């Protein structure tokens, strides 16, 4: 084998191994593509000639790289019509630019022309824009500048949790943007009670006030209470319920919410016991199936809880503001008329009202406004209703929320002074 290699080496250059290489003899190496001025173009029907070169463009004969000296020589060799001047310095014009604006010599050339010039001998109407521009005096034209519509972005409030994997800082904004878009799906009509024949708003308030006490007794999570109330309202908006079964609906809704939110779920027997044995285990499980089917097993709805947490973080809250905000929101859970407010607006109004109550004047900082997307004026109506509920919380028959937040565990938030000045619109100052 070595001897054959030596013989071949002395026989001159080796021939191509395949016929395909001979057929592609006019192909250019990759290193020659677009990196040398004067390199011949690829063979095509327009540029190909018998000799393989474009005789009209002798510049294609050379294969020198572009240098400053070579570019200057090209500029000198071209006609004066091809050289443009900028600040007295010659600038090389594109090759063939003198032919670009030339009219076709005959009809056959018209098929190769891109821009066709129509004759202006005919009295054709000008387009409306051109006609208007023709009549205008260019000295009277004014420069119109578009207004910069730059939306102010919300300040970053999650950088402090960058080391906490449970805070999901990477996509927490996406989560809350989704909550804002999806909150309508979890809402009910604010007048759904007109379709109930045996229950009314007062019975609903009694049920929820009792469930708040049960929730507190079982030491369940905040999320469970808000989801329980949401399940009750959504079910009652779809299904008529007899008065004697209303408590069963409430107990079953709490069982469903616990299964969705809690780690340790109360057993059915505990819920029957807390209901004073009014219902059997079979009734609870049958009602659970009916409620889950009526709601299409959809328990993933944004409640005011998730929004309160987010807005408290944007407000830089302390423990006192947090407890007072949740006290105001839970007061609203009992009230049927508060269903007409979106969960996010309800949460923002609770934080705003709590801030006003603690500070003694109107306060709604820019960071919280950007994260909540609600201005102070948009919150005033809901906030004034909360102040009224706060003022009357200790009176009347439904005092479950007031008793709960009057304990030391909840910082005696119910005993704080309500922001009465919001009711008449008076305030000492407004901090932005």
Automatic annotation (TrEMBL):
Domain (Cyclin-like): residue spans on this chain: 209-293, 306-388
Keyword Cell cycle: yes
Compositional bias of kind Low complexity: 10-20
Cited SUPFAM superfamilies: Cyclin-like
UniProt GO molecular function: cyclin-dependent protein serine/threonine kinase regulator activity
Matches recorded under PROSITE patterns: CYCLINS
PANTHER family with a match to the protein in the record: CYCLINS
Protein name, entry field: G2/mitotic-specific cyclin-2-like
Source organism of the structure: Iris pallida
Lineage: Eukaryota, Viridiplantae, Streptophyta, Embryophyta, Tracheophyta
């Amino acid at each position: 084998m070595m001897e054959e290699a030596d013989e071949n080496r002395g026989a001159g250059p080796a021939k191509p191994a395949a016929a395909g290489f001979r057929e592609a003899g006019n192909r250019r190496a990759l290193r020659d593509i677009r990196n040398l001025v004067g390199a011949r173009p690829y063979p095509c029907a327009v540029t190909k000639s018998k000799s393989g070169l474009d005789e009209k463009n002798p510049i294609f004969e050379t294969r020198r790289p572009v240098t400053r000296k070579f570019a200057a020589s090209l500029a000198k060799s071209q006609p004066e019509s091809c050289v443009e001047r900028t600040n007295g310095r010659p600038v090389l014009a594109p090759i063939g630019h003198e032919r670009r604006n030339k009219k076709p010599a005959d009809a056959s050339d018209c098929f190769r022309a891109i821009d066709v010039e129509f004759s202006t001998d005919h009295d054709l109407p000008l387009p409306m824009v051109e006609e208007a521009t023709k009549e205008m005096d260019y000295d009277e034209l004014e420069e119109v500048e578009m207004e910069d519509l730059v939306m102010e972005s919300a300040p970053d409030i999650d950088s402090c949790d960058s080391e906490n994997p449970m805070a999901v800082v990477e996509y927490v904004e996406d989560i809350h943007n989704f909550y804002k878009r999806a909150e309508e799906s979890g809402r009910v009509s604010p007048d759904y009670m007109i379709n109930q024949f045996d229950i009314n708003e007062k019975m609903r308030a009694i049920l929820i006030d009792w469930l708040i006490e049960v929730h507190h007794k079982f030491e369940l999570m905040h999320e469970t209470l808000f989801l329980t109330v949401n399940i009750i309202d959504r079910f009652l908006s779809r299904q008529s319920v007899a008065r004697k079964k209303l408590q069963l609906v409430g107990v079953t809704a709490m069982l469903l919410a616990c299964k969705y939110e809690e780690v340790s779920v109360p057993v059915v027997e505990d819920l029957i016991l807390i209901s004073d044995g009014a219902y059997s285990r079979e009734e609870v499980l049958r009602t659970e199936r009916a409620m889950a089917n009526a709601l299409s097993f959809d328990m993933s709805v944004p409640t005011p809880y998730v929004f309160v947490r987010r807005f408290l973080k944007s407000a830089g809250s302390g423990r006192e503001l947090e407890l007072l905000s949740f006290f105001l929101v839970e007061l609203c859970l009992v009230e049927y008329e508060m269903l007409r407010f979106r969960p996010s607006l309800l949460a923002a109004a609770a934080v705003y009202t709590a801030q006003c109550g603690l500070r003694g004047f109107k306060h709604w900082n820019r960071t919280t406004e950007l994260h909540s997307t609600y201005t102070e004026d948009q919150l005033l109506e809901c906030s004034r209703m909360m102040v009224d509920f706060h003022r009357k919380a200790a009176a009347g028959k439904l005092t479950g929320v007031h008793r709960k937040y009057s304990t030391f565990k909840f910082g005696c938030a119910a005993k704080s002074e309500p922001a009465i000045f919001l009711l008449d619109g008076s305030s000492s100052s407004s901090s932005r």
